[in-house]
Design goal:
Strand 4 and strand 5 form a beta hairpin. The chain starts with a helix and ends with a helix. It is elongated and about 105 Å long. It has 338 residues and is an alpha+beta fold. Helix content is 58%, strand content 14%. Strands 1, 2, 3, 4 and 5 form a five-stranded antiparallel sheet that branches.
């Protein structure tokens, strides 16, 4: 999303939703994570707003901000806006493994309206990291963009709540695939690191080399695990609260809609279960690798301490030898002088 696009959106939004859209755009740029749904009234004194939206008291908004990490192979990409970061994946112990990078990414979606027949949807996705998703492709395929092509333009969804649940379920499926990709690759490389650590223990020598390359690699692994776990955990926490507290907003007496909405909620819950498993694995590995890192640091520190002690002993011996031979040296010098 460019600044010009943001200005165009702000200029075309209805007055009662201007603040809502501004907050939505800010949250996307900041990479925030949250989900919301609710109806609200407009207290705007603007008479034109009230005239154009006679049902302003029924105004509603639905939205979400999903954060995820995208793993890509090859050269690193940079966000021209300067708001998303890229990182190098831990190196593989196998020399033939490709160089990988992972990227912060965001999907933001908002629906605002004053009734089922009058609503507007906004969707913003990050694609700076080489994503295949593009507006041109959706236009070419006559597919609906926010839902990731789940709908055709010729068969639009008329109910805003149903459309919101459809988009949320499809986008969570997309982020689950991305999370699965990055965590599976990370776990595969961590397996090799863990096997290497066990071999080091079996050798009886946990000392690192002078440039601390081994310790630094394990420190990087711990840092990546912390970052991924914290992002995923925060998203799951906010999503779970949304599903528990805002479910009443999607209650309906229409049996057909009720069946559809239940299906979407079931799809979302399945993805949540899958993401919870990823979260658990990240935490388990984080604990283990934190211990490995501390073990390497402790062993290196112990070795340096022993070496310093040995050097001190050597200096003490040399000092004692110097003191012992000093009288003889003085006597020799005195005799020669005499």
């Amino acid at each position: 999303m460019t600044p010009l696009c943001a200005v165009a959106l702000g200029a075309s939004v209805a007055g009662i939703f201007a603040a809502e859209l501004k907050q939505f755009l800010q949250a996307h740029l900041l990479g925030e994570i949250y989900f919301f749904a609710g109806a609200h009234s407009s207290n705007s004194p603007n008479e034109d707003t009230a005239q154009n939206h006679p049902n302003a008291e029924l105004a509603f908004s639905l939205g979400f901000h999903l954060s995820y990490v995208a793993l890509r192979e090859g050269k690193t990409f940079s966000d021209a806006r300067g708001i998303r970061q890229s990182y190098s994946m831990i190196e593989s112990i196998r020399d033939s493994a490709p160089e990988l990078f992972y990227y912060d990414a965001q999907i933001s979606f908002l629906i605002t309206g004053s009734g089922e027949g009058h609503w507007t949807a906004y969707c913003i996705t990050d694609n700076y990291m080489g994503s295949r998703e593009s507006i041109e492709d959706y236009f070419t395929q006559n597919a609906d963009g926010p839902s990731g092509g789940a709908l055709k333009d010729s068969q639009p969804c008329g109910n805003p709540k149903e459309y919101f649940l459809l988009v949320l379920s499809k986008r969570i499926q997309q982020t689950t695939r991305e999370w699965g990709n990055v965590t599976s690759t990370l776990m595969e490389r961590l397996d090799a690191y863990e096997s290497h650590y066990i071999r080091i223990i079996d050798s009886g020598d946990l000392r690192d080399n002078t440039d601390m390359a081994l310790t630094r690699s394990y420190m990087k692994a711990v840092s990546i695990l912390h970052q991924l776990h914290d992002t995923l955990s925060t998203q799951l926490e906010f999503l779970q609260k949304f599903l528990e507290k805002e479910i009443h907003f999607f209650e309906t007496e229409d049996r057909v809609l009720s069946v559809k909405w239940k299906y979407y909620f079931d799809c979302i819950q399945r993805e949540v279960v899958s993401l919870r498993k990823r979260e658990t694995r990240l935490m388990q590995r984080l604990r283990r690798f934190s211990g490995m890192k501390d073990g390497l640091i402790g062993s290196s520190s112990l070795f340096e301490s022993r070496r310093a002690t040995q050097q001190g002993d050597n200096i003490r011996i040399l000092t004692n030898m110097t003191v012992a031979y000093l009288p003889f040296n003085l006597a020799t010098v005195s005799y020669l002088h005499a």
